[in-house]
TrEMBL record:
Keywords: Cell membrane, Membrane, Transmembrane, Transmembrane helix, Transport. This is ABC transporter permease. The chain crosses the membrane at residues 30-53, 88-107, 119-141, 147-166, 186-206, 212-231, 243-264. CDD domains: TM_PBP2. Belongs to the binding-protein-dependent transport system permease family. InterPro entries: MetI-like (IPR000515), MetI-like_sf (IPR035906). It is found in: Cell membrane. It comes from Rugosimonospora acidiphila.
Length: 278
């Protein structure tokens, strides 16, 4: 065996170890997050099994897992999940399509921003549920009211973050655009929006979470279907396992969507140099 072959054989385990370390470093937030969830579930199960908490009130992870299998196996959960998904998707779509242009406009036009700030601050400080009677009075208790509540819940964080992103543009970007005599629309499209993208995607992540809460709240008060109504019905029937199963589905959906937005942030704003560890 030659010296080169010996060195290559010795280097192979080191290379494998380096790749394993790199993989663990990249996946560390996911692995630690999964470990935290498993520890919480294990503690919950132990507390329920030892009588520290009442199983009839808190249920247990094992019971909830069995209930999830029954709900998806029988197809009972698909109709509520589909209804909530439609309301949430439509409301979030309207939020993004309307919220980003409004935020960009307010961020670039000073007098409009000064006019809108008191209204935005008031609406953001007052819980949107407080406006539910007004929404019902104006739009009834149909799909329009539920979608409007989703939009109301999610649009303000998106507008506020977009305004902040547009206001904090790098001065070098603005100077370069001025040197090349960029028009207002071109500047908005080619400079302001890309530069504000980290703020905008953070706003989308916040809007997503609040919009999902808005969809569930709307179903608690205004619907005869959906995940919120499913959980409310299960709770009214003292089926805490079924109610917790519905809540777990909401949590998983929220986690998946949040991770998806985090992935987009890493892919689209890697140039910003301020990426969060996820």
């Amino acid at each position: 065996m030659t010296t080169t072959t010996v060195e290559a054989t010795r280097a192979l385990p080191a290379a494998r170890g380096s790749r394993a370390k790199a993989f663990l470093r990249r996946r560390r937030p996911l692995l630690l997050g999964t470990l935290g969830i498993l520890v919480m579930l294990a503690a919950w199960q132990v507390c329920a099994s030892t009588g520290v908490v009442d199983e009839t009130i808190s249920s247990t992870p094992l019971r909830i897992a069995a209930a999830e299998g029954h709900l998806f196996g029988s197809g009972e959960i698909w109709a509520p999940l589909r209804l909530t998904g439609l309301e949430f998707g439509l409301g979030l779509g309207i939020t993004i399509v309307a919220g980003i242009p409004i935020g960009v406009l307010l961020g670039r036009v000073r007098f409009l921003d000064e006019m809108a700030q008191p209204v935005i601050n008031v609406l953001n400080a007052v819980p949107y549920v407080m406006f539910l009677p007004i929404i019902i009075f104006w739009f009834g208790i149909g799909n329009t009211s539920r979608v409007l509540l989703v939009v109301w819940a999610g649009i303000l964080p998106l507008i506020i973050n977009t305004i902040a992103g547009v206001k904090h543009l790098d001065r070098d970007f603005v100077r370069v655009a001025e040197v090349f005599c960029a028009g207002r629309l071109f500047f908005m499209r080619a400079v302001a929006l890309p530069a504000a993208l980290p703020f905008i995607l953070t706003g989308v992540r916040l809007a997503l979470a609040r919009a999902l809460v808005g969809a569930i709240v709307a179903e608690l008060f205004l619907a005869s279907g959906g995940l919120g109504y499913f959980v409310q019905t299960a709770t009214a029937n003292f089926d805490m396992t079924g109610a917790m199963a519905g809540i777990v589905i909401m949590a998983v959906v929220a986690l998946i969507l949040t991770r998806a937005i985090g992935y987009l942030e890493r892919r689209l704003t890697h140039w910003s140099g301020s990426q969060p560890n996820r």
